[in-house]
Structures are given as structure tokens and as C-alpha cells.
Protein 1
Amino acid sequence: MDQLLPLDTVFSYSNSGYVVLGVRLRSKLGTYLRPSVLLIDEVGYEILERGEANLVSQVISKRYEKGSIILTSNKSFSEWGQVFADEVLATAILDRLLHHCDVISINGPSYRLKNRLKNRLRNIEQATEVA
């Protein structure tokens, strides 16, 4: 089983490849640890590389029972192993997130898609009236 890397040796993926964050990581993590509420939007929109998943795990672990997190995702909890590239890591993250939380599950058509379809129908109706 892989273990989380120490803060000074965690890698992060960038467009130019993997970069050792080292000491700078401590100050960067502080950015995510300071707010009383941290919003993490669209978890699962992109599959994370192993190093990225470790960074997210470190933020969640360090905020555990110290700061609130609001998180949005269109992935079910059972899919998080794929998102974080590791079932064990995803389970550890979920364990901390779900311990003191309220889960609000919203099912139904996408609000954005619904508006887009309305606009498309309106454009078709307008084009039909002109013709």
C-alpha cells in the first residue's frame, strides 16, 4: 500500500511535467488551510494524477475537524477511487469528509443543460417564424 509522501517531497503535475514543490508546498497548503470554509468545486471533473491526489488528501487531512469544506461533485462515492487513482486514498478522503457532514444529493436534469435546451428551442422557434 502506498503511503502519503512527506510534505517536502510531494510532487505536483503541471503542463511542463512533475515538479517538486518542497518547502514552497507548506506555504501553498496554508492557502487552503486558512479559510474557515473551503469550497472544492467539481471533484471528478478530471481524473487526478497520483501526486495531485496526494495533495488533495493532505489538504483534507489537515483541515479535518479544523475547518469546514463544501464540496461539489457529479461522481458517486463509489467512483472516487477512479478520480483519485487509488481506492485506499479515496476511502481515506471520504472517511474524513463524511465523518461530520451533511450530504445533499441533487438528482435530476442539469440546470445549465436545461437552460441551453430552452435557448435552442427558442432559437428554432424564431427561425421558423422568420421562414
Protein 2
Amino acid sequence: MRRDAGTVLRAGEALLGEQETFTREQVAYLINLAFESGIRFRATYAEGELLVSWARHHVAPPTRRERIAAELAAVDRAARLAAERAGRPYRIYRGGPVDWETGAPVRRLGAVA
């Protein structure tokens, strides 16, 4: 049995046309065609559901830049919290050596040693 688009359309036209009685072979063919169309639809629908579910629940992993930004934000939050607990103002670290005890920038490295 052929199951191309033309055959399916001719079968649909036969059902909607003037023909009121069908032979045993025609009925068997139409039942088989409907069954296989249902199986194809179910498989396609299931595949679509799978892809939608995957897209909804499995986001792409964060990029290196996003991971670093998240880590820096976590460190910044922790520093703000530590400054609040210690009762001192939070200062953004601009880089360079700092005094371990006070957190103040060291102007001359010789003073630390």
C-alpha cells in the first residue's frame, strides 16, 4: 500500500465523496491508513513534547564570563556583609596590597615588611 500525500488525499476525498459503500479492501486500507497516521502523529507529538520539555528545563550551562561574574557578585555580597557586621563602611577594593588587619590600602610595600 502506498502512503504518500496523494494517496491520503484521494482516500479523504473518497470518504467525503458520493461513494456510500466500500469494499472490504478499501475499509481495511482506510483503517490501516488511519492507524499509521495516528502512530506517526503520536510519535511526532511525543518528540515535540520531549524537545519542549528539554528546552524548558535544561538551560545552557553558564559561560565562563557568567560564572566569573556570579562568583565576583558572591564575594562582593560577602564583603558587604562582613563590613556591616564589623560596623565599618564598605569600600570597593580597587586592587593592590592591603593591610590584613584594617583592610586599608598599603601605600608603601616597605612599610608592611
